[in-house]
Design goal:
The chain is mainly alpha-helical. The chain has one domain: SecY subunit domain (Preprotein translocase SecY subunit, Orthogonal Bundle). 72% of the residues lie in helices and 5% in strands. It is built from 17 helices and four strands. The protein has a two-stranded antiparallel ribbon with strand order 1-4. It is globular, with a radius of gyration of 25 Å.
Length: 448
């Protein structure tokens, strides 16, 4: 039998959406924030010859720069004020969460600090974001000068570039937090999503242009389209897949009546970590390779002669990159699942409310069983994410595909963020309908 929430969801129509004024405000705020972000992606850094840099970028767009440009929505090619995007913030989040599992004071904040501890860790993340943004923007400024695309090189240009790029990253971090609290969806994920979607029309046009000029056959174009559709269907299926654990509640004697004895389900998703693992893995791979790229353009000392070789091995489609990318995806899938889902806490909540898994003793044994099931689900989830993200890398390695926008990582981000945002919109509509039902029942009670 369908639950009350499922019945409400089935009965939702356009009229319910029209009445949800709070949801309208949230959607308009989110849309406005996305427009501000896209405007910033076209404002160039002062003192940079954008045309000359774009020419150099186009020659290296098949490497790590291409993926960086995809996440930033073209801001890297434009050398805009948002060129760093939210990548320093994501890198800082990874470092803080990792230290939160091994550094005792931060581990105590994460586990026992509650809301205050979470806010403190978020503050540390912001501080570290500033440090990483300054570090990366300094490398970019030095790299721009060595590439001779700066009108007036010197210390003043470096300082100006560092301030502008770091400020752009901090503004996007703040904008993402505002979207999460006052808009719809996860702010940081939506910023990356907007960057990818904004460049999709251009990628589609380039794909058809290659077919028109004979660089790609019609059969290969159909193969790409069929592959993209198949990957989207597979992602939707896996993102909705879950294992339901049966939960029973004992019957209780309340006066002369027996209550309870109900059953429900504890849903465990196959992919609990969502789109976080490929974003984390990409962010960590972008950080060192960006620095190595700039080192290779400068006059290298003898101790840094290994930089060009390392850059070559960390380009897309290379075996070293694919192995590192796959291993990082698997690691972050398990790591982030352990962060967002605590079997001990879930088992304790079940015991507190009288629920139990049939045939399993409440408490520690229930936690062990949930952890057992979740670990095996995470193995499947990690394999699924790695396969989706590494398939286009293999195609790039064989020269079959030369655009990142139809790759598994970009499609996974777009589909997952879309599903998450739609789910949040539905939850807002459900909350609005519940409020309407409560108001109606109060009015009826007052009339009686």
């Amino acid at each position: 039998m369908a639950s009350a929430a499922e019945q409400l969801a089935a009965n939702m129509d356009f009229g319910a959406f029209q009445k949800a004024t709070e949801l309208h405000k949230r959607l308009l705020f989110t849309l406005g924030a996305m427009i501000v972000y896209r405007i910033g992606a076209f404002i160039p850094i002062p003192g940079v010859d954008v045309a000359a840099f774009a020419h150099i970028f186009d020659q290296q767009s098949n490497g790590i720069f291409g993926m960086f440009n995809m996440f930033s929505g073209g801001a890297v090619r434009n050398m805009a004020i948002f060129a760093l995007n939210v990548m320093p913030y994501i890198s800082a989040s990874i470092i803080v969460q990792l230290l939160g599992t091994v550094y005792p004071p931060w581990e105590k904040l994460r586990k026992e600090g509650g809301e205050a501890g979470r806010k403190q860790l978020n503050q540390y993340t912001r501080y570290l974001t500033v440090v990483l943004a300054v570090f990366q923007s300094t490398g970019i400024a030095i790299g721009l000068q060595s590439s001779k695309v700066v009108y007036s090189p010197g210390p003043l240009f470096v300082l100006e570039t560092v301030v502008i790029l770091s400020t752009g990253t901090m503004f996007l971090m703040w904008l993402g937090e505002q979207i999460t609290s006052r808009g719809v969806g996860n702010g940081v994920s939506l910023i990356i999503f907007a960057g990818i979607v904004a460049r999709l029309p251009t990628a589609v046009y380039q794909l058809f242009a290659q077919t028109r000029t004979g660089q790609m056959s019609g059969a290969m174009l159909l193969f790409f389209l069929a592959l993209a559709i198949g990957v989207i269907i597979f992602i939707v299926f896996m993102e909705r897949a879950q294992r339901r654990l049966l939960v029973q509640y004992p019957k209780r004697q309340v006066g002369n009546r027996m209550t309870g004895g109900d059953t429900s389900f504890l849903p465990l998703k196959v992919n609990v970590s969502g789109v976080i693992p490929p974003i984390f893995a990409s962010s960590l791979l972008l950080l060192p390779t960006t620095v190595l790229n700039f080192l290779s353009t400068a006059n290298l000392p003898s101790w840094a002669s290994w930089a060009p070789l390392a850059i070559g091995q960390l380009q897309h489609g290379r075996p070293a990159f694919m192995v590192l990318y796959g291993l990082m995806i698997v690691f972050f899938t398990f790591f982030y699942t352990s962060v967002v889902f605590n079997p001990d806490e879930t088992a304790e909540n079940l015991r507190k409310y009288g629920g139990f898994l049939p045939g399993i003793r409440p408490g520690k044994r229930t936690a062990e069983y949930i952890d057992y099931v979740l670990t095996r689900l995470t193995v499947v989830g990690a394999a699924y994410i790695a396969a989706v993200c590494l398939l286009p890398e293999w195609l790039m390695a064989n020269g079959t595909m030369n655009t990142y926008y139809f790759g598994g990582t970009s499609i996974l981000i777009v589909v997952s963020v879309t599903m998450d945002t739609v789910a949040q919109i539905q939850s807002h509509l459900l909350a609005h309908q519940y409020e309407g039902l409560i108001k109606k029942s109060k009015l009826r009670g007052a009339r009686r």
